[in-house]
Amino acid sequence: MTHRTRLLAVLWLSALAGTAQARTLEADIAKVRLPVATLDTVHVQLDWADNAPQGTLTLHAGRVQAPDLGIDARNLAWTCPLQRIDAMGWACDGTLRSAGKSFRLAIAFDEAGLRGTFRQGKATLAMQRATATPDFTRVDLTRVPIAWAQGLLAQSWADARLQGGTLDGRVDVDAPSKGPLRLSGRLNAAGVKLETTDATIASDKLAGTFDFDYRIFDAPHPSLLTLEGTLHGGEFLAGSVYVSLPDTPIGLSVRGEHREGAGWSLPRIAWTDGNALRVGGSAGFDEAATLRTLDLTLHSDDLSPLRDRYLSGLLGIAGLSDLTLTGALDAQVRVDGGEIHAFDFVPHHVDIVEPTDNRFAFHGLDGTLRFSRAAPIDSALQWHGGVLYGLEFGAASLPMRSEAGAIALTRAVSVPLLGGELRFDNMTLRPPADGKGADAVFGLSVDHLDIAKLATAFGWPAFRGQLTGHLPRAHYANERLDFEGGLSMAMFDGRVDVSSLSMERPFGVAPTLAADLHIDDLDLLALTEVFDFGSITGRLDGRIDQLRLVDWSVTAFDAELHTDPKRGVHQRISQRAVQSISSVGGSSLMTSLQGQLIGLFNDFGYKRIGIGCRLANEVCDMRGLHSGSDTFTIVEGAGLPRLTVIGHNRLVDWPTFVERLSAVGSGEVSPVVE
Amino acid sequence: MKAARWMGASVASMWALTACVTINVYFPAAEAKEAAKEFVEKVIGPDAVPATPAEPTPAKKPDGSGGGMASLLQRIDPLSLIGIGSAYAQGQPDISIKTPAIQAIQSRMASRFDASLRKGFDSGALGFGKDGLIVLREPGALELKDRAGMQAAVADDNRDRKAVYHEVAVANGHPEWEAQIRDVFAKQWVDSARGGWWYQDKGGAWKQK
């Protein structure tokens, strides 16, 4: 018995000894020191009626502190009937009140040792200490609210608040006068609800069984924790990482060290979630529980459950909630100073599919993808197919080298697309780091893409032709993709040159596409046939400047199209085309013929056709070959019968215009001929 | 005299040999506010307790009240193919939000607001940031099961908001107005917020409306 416990015993015995002479005994003690606790301003009173089998003990402590157990309570009052249990022993079982709550506390001691039971409702904490081993206390827990451990947790994790859950099991407390305080045992936790004060880390309904050993040393020696156990369901959130544990058991093994004034370091972490995820490694946190270092090796035989179990938080924030993953993966990740220092992904037949708007998909990913912030490292990634905004692309192999925080292709890579190919002449990719977003620079060649296939994929009119070009430098940063150089579309026997190409939010919300188009020598007959517009023969030149598509629909441009007379090229316009132009453009016909006679002619000669539109804010400002204050000439006739088409009211509502245009294409509109 | 309000043309100096004309195009703040108000109220929904009883007859807006989608709509008769010339003064910048992309984002934001964000504002978990974005300011006000979903909804909405501010500026021919448009919207989200919702003042402090 240490001198401290002896003091308590003497106190009690002196109290009991007094009963022979007096009905009431009182004692005030300024401070009582016990192995793990200190009691301040203690008042003991014992009332014992003459010849009564028991007395009434009342103990009041102004403050009880057990810093190692995180207990600091004020104004405890315990009243109980004191009775002998044998020649040497005493027992007292009564109500303990503290901070407006009442508990049941029973203490009994005899020659063999000390036993105590602390109860509230269904919760029971039973402790026992043998006289022979005064430093060793065994505590058995039955449905104990986990909040009772708040003080204990606060020592190592000050911001955490335990809000719910129960503990069952056994904890052995070894409090030798020299050496660490040691807490060990097995606990079964259920319904654990926890939250940090800033709510960045939280858990709910966590359940599990753990063997643990926690040794609290005096500074500067770090406190040591080992934890081995199994988790059975529940959920937790750490920053953006949301983990929803499956009902199947997850093995968890942790070894941790905690230094005063520093964070936790976990030299060993092992997480075993069946064949979905096995993780091993180490981690370090700073005092604010922010991850500083991480070295993990991951393996998954089946990636498909990972989204719902581990990735939904991160994917949700990235706007990829519906992303699906299948296949197997080996990976290593190293974080240093809170930044990713290196990673190494080895996918095995992995499919990644983002189904929203058919945004992207990669099928049959294999090979390696390695990233290094320091020394160079080579890798090679392959896929056997994929989809980008509904456009299917073919197999490709990407040889890469990573160094100094960037990944670059080591040679040009061709990707089959739309019957032709896209060739990445070079590419350097920097993943997000140092507070900067992802950044990519690449050179791209486009070789003989089939425009008919492109038109089918995007639901455009049945354009035919080929797209070819060279974009020597494209730069992606801040959600913006800018291209230098241009593309050329060979179509309708002429060409359309695309320049000043750029995209905003290419993989994000309402992606935009901006470009300037230069149109040269298109065969009008082929073009009008595609639109089922009636037929016009001749050649078309023009430009569409500052074209801007938002979410793949046209929102702005400044266009001007006109016919280009060529020697030997007939310039005729069919009666149907005249009617189409009239109904779309809202034009009236000024013709030398009576309006109703137009039907007598199949086609007309023309001298020039010209039309322009500046679209902004859904309003098209139309112009023609020549424009008056509110009229514009679209068709200037030639020969007899001479036909002139003049548009009236230059401002046209764009959606209506498009509606009319598509109605003409489907033959739904017949014009009013004046 | 709308034009005079925001566009000032002044002869800056005239010298014997050279003449220099400066044209200043000012940000149409009143029109922007009108457009923002309309957008925001479509997302948040009509105020449950309007300050004045709602007019049963629509389109009673006084003429010449400025820009905004309603006034533009008023000016365009969608049934008429061409009959808009007299009402729409070409060349006068306006703040219009009537592009299909912006409207698609607006309706997506409105359904997201009803499906999840409104609960976040009611519970105090969310607040309107001073930069026109939504901030998950008090995640602890949400059940854990809802928190990850709310984080995703906030991220989605902020992506939409950034796109709207940018596209409104671009659609109106002045990409450089993006920051001002964002400011106008930031104020409007707060102005249209319901009592009890949180917002960030200019200094970054959180206040409850």
Could you explain how this protein is built, in words?
Helices cover 11% and strands 60% of the residues of chain A. Chain A has 7 helices and 44 strands. The N and C termini of chain A lie far apart (118 Å). The relative contact order of chain A is 0.04. Chain B is an alpha+beta fold and 209 residues long. Helix content of chain B is 46%, strand content 13%. Chain B has 6 helices and 6 strands, in the order αββαααββααββ. Chain B has a 4-stranded mixed β-sheet with strand order 4-3-5-6. A two-stranded antiparallel sheet of chain B has the order 1-2. In chain B, a hairpin with a 4-residue loop joins strand 1 and strand 2. The N terminus of chain B is likely disordered. Chains A and B meet through strand 12, strand 14, helix 3, strand 37 and strand 44 of A and helix 4 and helix 5 of B.
How would you concisely characterize the structure shown here?
The complex is a heterodimer of chains A (674) and B (209). Chain A is mainly beta and 674 residues long.
* Unreliable spans of chain A: 1-7, 14-20, 668-674
Q: How many beta-strand segments of chain A?
A: 44
Encode the helix/strand succession of chain B as letters: HEEHHHEEHHEE
Mean pLDDT across all amino acids of chain A? 87
* Largest sheet strand order of chain B: 4-3-5-6
**Continuous helix count of chain A:** 7
Give the N-to-C terminal Cα separation of chain A.
118 Å
Q: Tell me about the largest β-sheet of chain A.
A: 44 strands, antiparallel
Q: What is the C-alpha radius of gyration of chain A, as a whole number of Å?
A: 41 Å
Mean pLDDT of chain B: 72
